[in-house]
Amino acid sequence: MSAITRDEVAHLARLSRLALSDDELDHYAAQLDAIIVAVAKVSEVAAEDVPPSSHALPITNVYRPDQVRPSLTPQQALSGAPAVEDDRFRVPRILGEEA
User: Fold this and answer.
1) Total domain count for the chain?
2) How many Å separate Cα 45 from the centre of its chain?
3) Which residue in 44, 59, 66, 77 is deepest, having the highest Cβ count within 10 Å?
4) Residue 38, Cα to own-chain centre: how many angstroms?
5) CATH number of residue 32's parent domain
6) Domain span at residue 29?
7) 40, 45, 49, 55 alpha-carbon torsion, rounded to 10°
8) What's the EC number here (predicted)?
9) Residue 41 lies in a domain
10) Tens digit of pLDDT per residue, the chain (99 long)?
11) Residue at 35 is within a domain
């Protein structure tokens, strides 16, 4: 027995304001039925002793301590910029908004 019928697909299409032909209704009914059957199979396999998870392996963030290192001065960083204003890159306005 199908998990979803052609009439149910037609009802969903009406609720979604989709105009589906008879061929499309049959096609989508078969596809949705296959999806529902596949999900049901997965539900059968899932054991109660297995906790829900988002990843198969545990994930932990790896942090390193912050270390101060020599870096470029603002003048060195901006030395190759085509336009500079107040120690920043100057770029053309693109949205026409007031500054």
Assistant:
1) 1
2) 27
3) 77
4) 23
5) 1.10.20
6) 6-45
7) -80
8) 6.3.5.-
9) yes
10) 568 889 999 999 999 999 999 999 999 999 999 999 998 888 777 677 777 777 888 888 889 899 999 999 999 999 999 999 999 999 888 887 665
11) yes
